[in-house]
């Protein structure tokens, strides 16, 4: 869902007070390079998934301080007149490159790089991180679930368990991770995602009995609908469901199971359906699923999975822990300099970075190569020498023009395909749900002239 | 942040297909009672916190299907003409009562009760649950953190770690749970919450050295500002920070520590500040805090806590697991009947419910009394007999008029005060961070005429 009200106040106050300070010292106009990356993957995760890129591009475009925003900032005394003047004219005039949406990433992967003046680039920190952290967390969970489902369709149904606007973004991120439908209508309207859903237990309960409910649903949605059969007794429910469809002249599309021991029930219900001759009637299951439950259901005769809470909350990891760090900036002499803080436990690697995925002879990913370099050209030459697939694409051209192919109507479908290809390229260890290291190691090479630090230990 | 685009498509598709089916069977117009409650509290939680009520009321008011929404539904073939006609004219015409925002709740507490026709009430399920599940999860985490902080101010800084619109709602929910400020500007504009923030590491790094950065910040924000002292060496940072403020003719407001061993550092930095004579300079800490880290820091000389990720993601429980269930509806004879599904592991208690908090002689909460009753009058009489404090207030008057006191400009501050009172009323066990039962038990009494079930086991 496009935020119609502008995105400029979806911002931490300190982004603006930093501009206020930087205007005093003359550093607001220094050319700067900010990088989005993660220091580590969440426990048990073998890879991350870039998601939200298209939403970031929309948010950057909508990042304007209108009269209402300026009035609020002035009234609340957040910043002074000089900063307000800068914000009033603000539009992002720098450039952004990054991993294309759907790509897998690893600790230290520079998944988005924002270049511009310090003021231009720092102010985007909050909204860029919010979008990427949320959407990537959901996409990573979705990817594990679709891996565990081994080709059976996974459907997103978690809208009620997360913030109402997050739900729409979560549905989109789930598609990046391989999901094939969503329950939430706004995601259908905004992103063209197929919407799914038939009825809840309340529909059965508002009727005098299950027969009446099933008859009404079949009359409205046709015999190909999915009937929820566990409001009362499942065996009786299945019987009535098949009968309701046949009375309307068809075979039932599917039954849905939403409680109890789903593995055992799937076998029982499949047997019952087959014995009733309803061999084409499918079984969909929906109760508190996550990637582990899905893996356990693989041996059962289930046709599709509806996933709610665990998907939209990132299956234990609701945020991707991406950070946005200044890695290079113009010095007093006008030359670009690598910068990095040295805080205990939070040290960062300085410098503009170019990244590539090194593959072995069987075209399987073997290594994430991250090159700190003075210029993109020198970094890309290093990737070419290593035979690495370049990971970064242009998202916003220098000057602020957005590369529309990364947010057009086909962008989501392409991101889904890209993710599948990126995941399939990883070694088999990537598919495991258990504890373990990232699927491939990240190797950092520093070709910045005159640099002699050894940064390997800090990734 | 008010959703300006309307909330009607922030809805699961099945809400609309249920209306389609219910129109066929004539049940769409049956008077119905839906109830929001949770079956259990998350692990280690002794109480839940109602939050999001004001946002629910706004969402109900904005729940209208405009031409754009109708066009989408028609074009996508989601529902047929009769349902579209109903939706085109839709506005909620029923009534809503519930626990006032900020109240503590327990398993089985009927925190919101929606009455209206089946069609009127079922369609609000998704957006009501989304708001309450998100906001209550954040408020519950916030409440544990402010309890652990023992009066030291807690400040919300998590915008970058959650969906950009959730961030604004999370800031609001944090205030319900006792937080006293937020970093995110939109929460300042939308809800009048005090915003806070000064500078990140990037601000120090964009300058040629720490002295220049501190001087610029003090010039812009005054010596009372908070300086981040751990970009390089903390001891040197503290020295420079105090000096920068004094050069500008004042004493430094505070230093911020954002990495390393915060407990040890807080002692060292306090000692250093005192030895420099900066006894009024405060210490704020901000690195990956949760309620346990805050509790551990209690013994250290820290003045305030900035909490990010763990707050906005509900500290391990990003959703409150509230459900929205049909508990009573009109039968064929026009009389209201209790209804409940009997699915294994998901059984619900039927009937309209009235709830009260029973207190012991020292006015401390002893029990959550939940009465299933045929009418509000009979339920309230039962509460009075038990001497229980009635928990439900009118939120939407019958016919759809919203009770504005629950969403006006003062509503948030009152919810914060109400939460503090509600929490203080609980037994001391409520304050524990460890595993344990809900702070008070829920007792269910069924005075519905002619009812002989024993529902006690299902709460």
TrEMBL record, chains A, B:
Q: Which UniProt keywords apply?
A: Glycosyltransferase, Ligase, Phosphoprotein, Pyridine nucleotide biosynthesis, Transferase
Which residue range or ranges hold the Nicotinate/nicotinamide phosphoribosyltransferase domain? 155-348
For this protein, the Enzyme Commission number is: 6.3.4.21
The metabolic or biological pathway listed in the UniProt record of this protein is:
Cofactor biosynthesis; NAD(+) biosynthesis; nicotinate D-ribonucleotide from nicotinate: step 1/1
Keyword Glycosyltransferase recorded: yes
Q: Name one GO molecular function term.
A: glycosyltransferase activity
Identify the residues that the record assigns to the Nicotinate phosphoribosyltransferase N-terminal domain, covering every copy.
9-133
Write down the chemical reaction(s) this protein catalyses: 5-phospho-alpha-D-ribose 1-diphosphate + nicotinate + ATP + H2O = nicotinate beta-D-ribonucleotide + ADP + phosphate + diphosphate
Q: Does the keyword Iron-sulfur apply?
A: no
PTM entry text: Transiently phosphorylated on a His residue during the reaction cycle. Phosphorylation strongly increases the affinity for substrates and increases the rate of nicotinate D-ribonucleotide production. Dephosphorylation regenerates the low-affinity form of the enzyme, leading to product release.
Q: Which Gene3D superfamilies match?
A: Aldolase class I (3.20.20.70), nicotinate phosphoribosyltransferase (3.20.140.10)
Q: Which family is annotated? A: Belongs to the NAPRTase family.
Q: What this chain does, per the record?
A: Catalyzes the first step in the biosynthesis of NAD from nicotinic acid, the ATP-dependent synthesis of beta-nicotinate D-ribonucleotide from nicotinate and 5-phospho-D-ribose 1-phosphate.
- What is the protein's given name? Nicotinate phosphoribosyltransferase
Q: Which organism is it from?
A: Georgenia halophila
The lineage is: Bacteria, Bacillati, Actinomycetota, Actinomycetes, Micrococcales
């Amino acid at each position: 869902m496009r935020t119609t009200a502008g995105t400029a106040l979806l911002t931490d106050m300190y982004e603006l007070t930093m501009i206020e300070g930087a205007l005093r010292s003359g550093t607001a106009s220094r050319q700067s390079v900010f990088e989005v990356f993660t220091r580590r993957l969440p426990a048990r995760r073998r890879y991350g998934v870039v998601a939200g890129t298209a939403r970031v591009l929309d948010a950057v475009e909508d990042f304007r301080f209108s009269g209402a925003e300026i009035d609020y900032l002035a009234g609340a005394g957040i910043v002074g007149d000089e900063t307000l003047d800068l914000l009033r004219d603000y539009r992002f005039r720098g450039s952004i490159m990054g991993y294309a949406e759907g790509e897998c990433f690893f600790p230290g992967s520079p998944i988005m790089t924002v270049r511009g003046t310090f003021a231009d680039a720092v102010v985007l920190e909050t909204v860029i991180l919010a979008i990427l952290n949320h959407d990537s967390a959901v996409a990573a969970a979705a990817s594990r679930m679709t891996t565990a489902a081994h080709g059976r369709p996974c459907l997103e149904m978690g809208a009620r368990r997360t913030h109402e606007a997050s739900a729409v973004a979560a549905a989109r991120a789930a598609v990046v991770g391989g999901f094939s439908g969503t329950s939430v209508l706004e995601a259908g309207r905004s992103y063209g995602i197929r919407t799914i859903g038939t009825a809840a237990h309340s529909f059965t309960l508002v009727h005098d009995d299950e027969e009446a409910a099933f008859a009404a649903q079949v009359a409205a949605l046709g015999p190909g609908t999915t009937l929820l059969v566990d409001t009362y007794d499942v065996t009786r429910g299945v019987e009535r469901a098949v009968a309701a469809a046949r009375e309307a002249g068809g075979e039932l599309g599917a039954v849905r199971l939403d409680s109890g021991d789903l593995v055992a029930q799937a076998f029982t219900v499949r047997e019952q359906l087959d014995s009733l001759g309803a061999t084409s009637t499918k079984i969909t299951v929906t109760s508190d699923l996550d990637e582990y439950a899905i893996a356990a259901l693989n041996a059962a005769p289930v046709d599709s999975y509806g996933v709610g809470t665990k998907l939209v909350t990132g299956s234990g990891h609701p945020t991707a822990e991406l950070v946005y760090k200044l890695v290079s900036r113009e010095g007093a002499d006008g030359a670009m300099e690598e910068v990095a803080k040295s805080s205990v436990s939070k040290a960062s690697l300085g410098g503009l970075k170019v990244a590539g995925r090194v593959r072995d002879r069987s075209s399987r990913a073997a290594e994430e190569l991250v090159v700190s370099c003075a210029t993109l050209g020198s970094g890309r030459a290093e990737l070419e020498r290593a035979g690495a697939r370049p990971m970064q694409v242009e998202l916003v051209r220098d000057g602020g023009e957005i590369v529309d192919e990364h947010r057009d109507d086909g962008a989501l479908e392409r991101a889904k395909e890209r993710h599948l290809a990126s995941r399939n390229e990883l070694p088999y260890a990537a598919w495991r749900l258990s504890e373990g290291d990232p699927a491939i190691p990240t190797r950092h090479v520093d070709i910045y002239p005159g640099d002699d630090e050894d940064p390997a230990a800090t990734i």
